[in-house]
Every structure is written in structure tokens, then in C-alpha cells.
């Protein structure tokens, strides 16, 4: 059974940092592009960052570029999102995502709250 479990969220002051983790199981993690999405209250879910299967290529949403870093450890079936210089607009539930044969799988999400 494919499973994604996020962790690392919490409450942080503006300017602070958090590191999110996504532990994957039930599929060949190293073969797939992985992504982080977020959904703020009253807004649609949006793509934050993606990383290629081997980790050599990354993409970021414009507002997080230069502040967030996506990475992965294929030996541990884990993906990360290092978030620096956080601001209140980054407050959201953050989700881990994989798309296999066109079918997306989501984790349960982890809440990130940034206070001003």
C-alpha cells in the first residue's frame, strides 16, 4: 500500500525556519518525481516544489524560490523541504505528493503556522 507521511510542521515566528520530512513506503520511491504542495485556508492547493527521481533537478514556485530547498534521500525513501525566512503568507497545510501512472497519492499533511 502506497503511503506518504509528513512531519516537521509547527508554529514559528516570521523569519524562522522549519524542515519538513516525507517518509514514503509501498512503491519504488527512487523511480518517481516527488512534490510538496500547500493549501492555505480558503485557497486552492498549490505546488510548492518538485524534485526529479534522482534529485538532480528541482523546481520551485516563485514566492518560495531562494527561501525553500527541496531534497531527497533515496536510500531512506524520504523527501525533505527546508524552509527558511518564513513569513505569514507561508502558513498552510503542507502535503507530500507522488503521481504514479497519472494517479496522485497524498499524505495527511502537516500544519505550518508562521506568526508575525
Low-confidence stretches: none
Structural class per helix/strand content? mainly beta
Using DSSP, what is the number of strands?
11
**Overall shape:** globular
**Span between termini:** 40 Å
How is the main sheet built? Answer: 7 strands, mixed
What's the total helix number?
0
- What proportion strand? over 45%
List the helices and strands and how they pair.
Layout: E1 3-7, E2 10-13, E3 18-25, E4 34-39, E5 46-51, E6 58-60, E7 68-73, E8 78-83, E9 92-100, E10 103-106, E11 110-115
Describe this structure in words.
Helices cover 0% and strands 54% of the residues. The chain is an all-beta fold and 116 residues long. The strands form 2 sheets. Strands 2, 4, 5, 6, 9, 10 and 11 form a 7-stranded mixed beta sheet that branches. Strands 1-3-8-7 form a 4-stranded antiparallel beta sheet, with no helix packed on it. The radius of gyration is 13 Å and the shape is globular. The mean pLDDT is 97.
Short description:
It is built from no helices and eleven strands. It is an all-beta fold and 116 residues long.
Keywords:
seven-stranded mixed sheet, 116 residues, globular, mainly beta, 0% helix
